[in-house]
Amino acid sequence: MSDVVRLEYRNVTMRFVDGTGNSLVAVQQVCLSVRDGEVVSLIGPSGCGKSTLLNIGSGLTAPSEGEAFIDGERVEGPNAHVAFMLQKDLLLPWRTILQNVMFGVEIQGIPLPERERRAKTLLDTLNLGEFGNHYPHQLSGGMRQRVALARTLAVDPTVLLLDEPFSAVDAQTRIVLQRELAQTLKRSGKTALLITHDLLEAVTLSDRVLVMSRRPGRIIDEIAVDLPQRDDPIARRQDPRVNQYVSRLMERLDIGHTPAERAAGAQA
Amino acid sequence: MNGANPKTAMRRGTAMSVAVLIVFLAAWQWGPGLLGIPSFIVPPLSAVANEFVRMLSRNALMFHTGVTAAEVIAGFILGSLLGAFFGYMLGMSPTAEVALSPYILALQIAPKVAFAPLFVMWMGFTVYPKILVAILIVFFPVMVNVLTSVRTVDPDLINLARSFKATRAQIFWKIEFPASMPPLFAGLRIGSTLAVVGVVVGELVGGNMGLGYLLAFGEGQANTPMVFVTILMLTLVGGIAYLGVIVLEIRVLHYLPKRALGGF
Ligand SMILES: Nc1ncnc2c1ncn2[C@@H]1O[C@H](COP(=O)(O)OP(=O)(O)OP(=O)(O)O)[C@@H](O)[C@H]1O
Ligand SMILES: [Mg+2]
């Protein structure tokens, strides 16, 4: 990990026009930066603009105000150094697993032998080597999500934007996938911004956790996770300090209080 | 029952299918006589079979079948290509869709077969008016299916491709086009049977070629067996066209789980 900033948001504000023509502020004045090799989680209530931030970082949508930077360069559109992964695996049913992994590199025009080499290596490291010629419908949800991870990594991005990547898989598979992700990120030294609703996932996978407020989303807290073994979330789970971090995040998110208690707290 | 293994179910189904066929043919042969239905209303199977043999030599049945089949194929292929082309075009250009949709809708509501006399007036007793009716009638199911499929592609898929810096052409050829294949084939299946309808109506209206002509000819002669033979041949032509689509579909959509294919 070095001090080079790989991903940065400077005063990013995003406004949408909703169905009735009213303007809606999704995120407001967000500033955040992720250094090289760092894994940062972003948590916050539903609808606070996390996915919106991810879309801005990947260059798919332009912010209303402010700007995002990748490797110090202003994001003006999709960028070869950034790749994203969503809750949906987005595998193409008519492509084999190998062809799905090659989807991104194929679009980028990398020659076929190199494409295949990369895809096969990735499938092997993710224990999917023997499924290269299968079709997505023949794989389980967890396996498909791993294929999506392989597709994301195949383009060799420096920054990964992950939007609740494991929230659609079962709890046990999720733990396995989390470890695979953690190891891959560590091994390749990639920088990642991970959006999640799973506080334990945020704490066990990242170096830092950023907490967003209800809409209009702002970053209201930043918690450095001072635990060893970022590449082994299963080991981290055992650590008693993890619970302290999780409770602190719950507190910041105002989870566990009824609306009445919140109102009373606000008056006090 | 539902737990039966698919092979047993298949074998049992086939056996029952054959049994139904035998019962049907037997009922056709002896039913009308037993019920006292005169043979000029429902000719028995043997009369129809005899008529079939007679028509082979006397009425050039195979020639007329060939003409109809050729018109069906031409109309079906041209109509499908045109439908697919417009489907993709309108699917990718919302402006074009807004501009053209009222007219397309009007054309879709108008009964296409009603154009047959008009086309015959324009183009005479040739094969062209028949092909044209088939084109018109095949066009819509194909176009609507393709249009809908392009419209309903998951926007996240498009975004995924965009994030890899895909060009518009790449998005079309790598996502929208392959994604449209299952609905396209659903449209083609419908189109293949409708093409026969279009061609027959065209032939009924005018000309001296094709099964539609034989149909009118048999009616004029009060030759019921001839009408029966012609209907059977038309069904055969439609069936072959449908089968052709299915064979192609199985090859193109080989990636789909097996159960999704087949059926009607
Ligand atoms: N294209 C859009 N047009 C209009 N409003 C939008 C659009 N995209 C997002 N929004 C609104 O912006 C807000 C933030 O959405 P976003 O998807 O970023 O939330 P999120 O934090 O990712 O939520 P979740 O945790 O449920 O995924 C929501 O209120 C949403 O309705
Ligand atoms: Mg979201």
What is the string of helix and strand elements of chain B? HHHHHHHHHHH
Class inferred from helices and paired strands of chain A: alpha/beta
Q: Regions of chain A with pLDDT < 50 over 5+ consecutive residues?
A: none
Average pLDDT of chain A works out at: 89
- Rg for CA atoms of chain A: 19 Å
Q: Tell me the span between the first and last alpha carbons of chain B.
A: 22 Å
So what's the overall shape of chain A?
A: globular
Q: How far apart are the termini of chain A? A: 44 Å
Please report the total strand number of chain B as a whole number.
0
Task: List the quaternary state of the chains.
Answer: heterodimer
Instruction: Calculate the mean pLDDT score of chain B and round it.
Output: 89
Q: Radius of gyration of chain B from the CA trace?
A: 23 Å
Which structural class matches the secondary elements of chain B? mainly alpha
Helix proportion of residues of chain B, in percent? over 70%
Q: How many strands appear in the DSSP assignment of chain A? A: 10
Give the CATH class of the largest domain in chain B: Mainly Alpha
In short:
The complex is a heterodimer of chains A (268) and B (264). In chain A, 37% of the residues lie in helices and 24% in strands.
Characterise the protein shown here.
- The complex is a heterodimer of chains A (268) and B (264).
- Chain A is of the alpha/beta class and 268 residues long.
- Helices cover 37% and strands 24% of the residues of chain A.
- A 6-stranded mixed sheet of chain A has the order 6-7-8-3-9-10, with helices on both faces. A 4-stranded antiparallel sheet of chain A has the order 2-1-4-5, covered by helices on one side.
- Chain A is globular, with a radius of gyration of 19 Å.
- With 264 residues, chain B is mostly helical.
- Chain B has helices at 6-35, 45-58, 61-92, 94-109, 116-123, 128-151, 155-163, 168-179, 181-205, 211-220, 224-252.
- The mean pLDDT of chain B is 89.
- Classes of the chains: A alpha/beta (268), B mainly alpha (264).
- Bound molecules: adenosine-5'-triphosphate and magnesium ion.
- Residues 50-51, 163 of chain A line the site of magnesium ion.
- Adenosine-5'-triphosphate binds next to α1 of chain A.
